[in-house]
Fold this sequence. Notes:
Layout: H1 5-25, H2 29-41, H3 43-49, H4 51-63, H5 68-95, H6 98-117, H7 132-147, H8 151-160, H9 165-189, H10 195-203, H11 205-219, H12 224-248
Helix pairs in contact: 1-2, 1-11, 2-3, 2-12, 4-9, 4-11, 5-7, 5-9, 6-12, 7-8, 8-9
Protein name: Probable membrane transporter protein
Keywords: Cell membrane, Membrane, Transmembrane, Transmembrane helix, Transport
InterPro entries: TM_pro_TauE-like (IPR002781), TSUP (IPR052017)
Amino acid sequence: MLLDPLLLVSVALVFLVAGTVKGVIGMGMPTVSLALLTATVGLPSAMALLLAPTIITNIWQALVGGYLQQILRRLWPFLLASVVTVWLGVGVLARVDVRWLSGLLGVLIAFYALSGLFNLGLGKLVSRGRHAAPVNGALTGLITGMTGSSVFPGVAYLQSLGLPRDMLIQAMGVLFVVTTMALGFSMGEQRLLSVELALLSLGAVIPAILGMQLGQRLRQRLSEVTFRRVFLTGLLVMGGYLLLRSLAG
């Protein structure tokens, strides 16, 4: 795999694009990379490849902002549940037909895109009440383990809490770091993370960071509203494609 020039170029381009999106709108890199890579190398390999870029590009977001202690004190039941159930999700990934999980990823990506395009308010759909934190955390970890995506209900739950903007961004960074690290360890235990995939994932950090720098420069010249609409429309198309491909077998 590492010696395939076409694969190397494809992975580099995917993370350059995904990093650019994150640089412009501050999020979206795991979702973009998952959508594009799953369509080319399959879901398990796509999940393995996003590990290092996702962890490294979100560590800064998770640590900087001044709210880390408050986030951990308030959200530890949610974060703990999300980390624990990642192992269950990866166990499902290792045992079921990956085609159906690719379809599930397609549904999640399409739903995420539609919610952004039409302001559906994801926060209204998440579990509420006394046990909302562990319930949403458990579902987030399970879905992360099966598909690599921590967006729903994880991000929706965090948005529903009414956190200050900077605290919300830092909390999302913490969520992505802890769930992705758990994903890496659990995939290693299930022998879904080979040495060559790990090395390729580390190599993908470089184009991801370059893309983020490019995106931060483009942000000053582009309309963020227009870019976000194009980004979400592209995700909707990719999500639909993954779903249709899984149904077609």
